[in-house]
Amino acid sequence: MKVVILGGGFAGIHLAKALVKQDNVEVHLVDKNNYNFFPPLLYQVSTAFIESYNISYPFRRMFQNKKNFIFHMGTVLNINTQEHYIVTTHERIDYDKVVLAMGCDTNYFGNETLAREAMPMKSIHDAINLRNHLLLMLEEASRLPEADIQPYTQIVIAGGGPTGVEIAGMLAEMQREIIPKDYSEKICKHIKIYLVDMDSVLLRAMSEKAGKEAFEVLSKLGIQIKLNVAVKNYENNKVYFSDNEVIESHTLIWASGVRAIDVPGIPASSIAKNGRIYVNEYNNVLGLEDVYCLGDQCLMQGDPDYEKGHPQLAQVAIQQGNLLAQNLRHLSKNQPLEPFRYVNKGSMAIIAKYKAVVDLPKGFFKGFFAWLVWLFIHLIPIAGFRNKVKLFFSWSWSFLTNDPTLRLIIRPRKKYFPEEQPPHQ
Ligand SMILES: Cc1cc2nc3c(=O)[nH]c(=O)nc-3n(C[C@H](O)[C@H](O)[C@H](O)COP(=O)(O)OP(=O)(O)OC[C@H]3O[C@@H](n4cnc5c(N)ncnc54)[C@H](O)[C@@H]3O)c2cc1C
């Protein structure tokens, strides 16, 4: 059986790792990048706290020596469900079973100016881009007279969910501990960080206690929190808010919404709100026998505890990937399939150095112990033993010295020299 997995994130990788153990399966993995990465730590890359390679791992290395595994680098363009093939930017791949696991992209809710000007936080590219931008703004500010500095040192974060809260806390730490080491007092005193959300609380998806704790800790760190306020527009480096305030800033970080990746060829009747694809409790796309969808990209009907669908979290994707591997084996042996039931193991967010919040199914805790638990839990799933050790070392160094990565501004060249032309051009 030839199984083609589209997307090597949490869901795709767990499915692929389980499927390569089955002798009768040929596993093809398609991804637009040649590496898997760990989104929960992107904010630490974008604030120059750790390096991008601490949280990324190449697929070919991950599946070295697996004879029934084939990797295809390419962006998925469409799917033909009648003739059983998919098309990427480079090739056509036929399948017996296809699994969509391409997750989500940033949602700007149709605002083209925001899409062009705001800085997303969804990928390694986004995180490196933001890190370079933040450092460049500080360089720019250091060349200017004091009266002109503020637009370069004011940062607006749209979205008070875990990503917005975590990046706000990290930027506040940077402002306090790291930037004063490299830049003059003139720059430091003009840094101002705004965290904005349309909702009346932070961390809406977590408990009330977690939201309150985040609000208190971030306020103490000097973050300007604006709740019940939306970003309406962003033009000419001015952020326009729904309460009519306007803030001059070269940096609007968009941590506000997601939309599932569109796959032309999936019938419109199978697509729900926010682009998510309807699946039954076996992750089978409704109405399409050999097409499955996992993780953030799907919206499952049939789990009694999650009638409106599951939250878009890593654990949901992992558990669905593992179960689908088991169910595909059962299917090939004509055995009964097991329906998916999400086991909620809790959720957590880091707010600042030594401060985190943890919601468990039966309780809540916060503070230093929660922070330690957060670090431990986020170290375990990092791909590759070498990466785990490096990340542990990076964290220890960064937290103890308050002087993390070297904060180099390294940007790709826009043009290739002729001898470096990529082969497909
Ligand atoms: C900044 C951030 C922080 C987060 N923090 C947490 C957290 O603390 N805890 C938590 O539980 N969840 C967190 N999440 C959510 C979590 O990352 C997702 O729920 C999880 O990644 C979903 O897994 P997935 O496999 O469905 O998709 P993903 O992990 O997003 O994987 C999708 C894969 O598809 C590939 N892909 C996408 N489009 C294409 C295409 N057109 N062609 C080919 N390949 C494609 C991508 O390169 C990627 O490898 C966070 C997300 C972000 C962005």
UniProtKB/TrEMBL annotation:
Instruction: Enumerate the UniProt keywords alphabetically.
Output: FAD, Flavoprotein, Membrane, NAD, Oxidoreductase, Transit peptide, Transmembrane, Transmembrane helix
Organism field: Arachidicoccus rhizosphaerae
Q: Which reaction does it catalyse?
A: a quinone + NADH + H(+) = a quinol + NAD(+)
Q: Where are the transmembrane segments?
A: 368-385
Output the Gene3D superfamilies linked to this UniProt entry: 3.50.50.100
Q: Family assignment? A: Belongs to the NADH dehydrogenase family.
* Superkingdom of this protein's organism: Bacteria
**Gene Ontology MF: a single term:** NADH dehydrogenase (quinone) (non-electrogenic) activity
Known EC number: 1.6.5.9
**The External alternative NADH-ubiquinone oxidoreductase-like C-terminal domain covers which part of the protein?**
345-400
Domain FAD/NAD(P)-binding span(s) in chain numbering: 1-321
Q: What class of enzyme is it?
A: oxidoreductase
InterPro entries, sorted: FAD/NAD-bd_sf (IPR036188), FAD/NAD-binding_dom (IPR023753), NDH-2 (IPR045024), NDH2-like_C (IPR054585)
A Pfam family of this chain: Pyr_redox_2
- Tagged with keyword Oxidoreductase: yes
| Descriptive protein name | NADH:ubiquinone reductase (non-electrogenic)
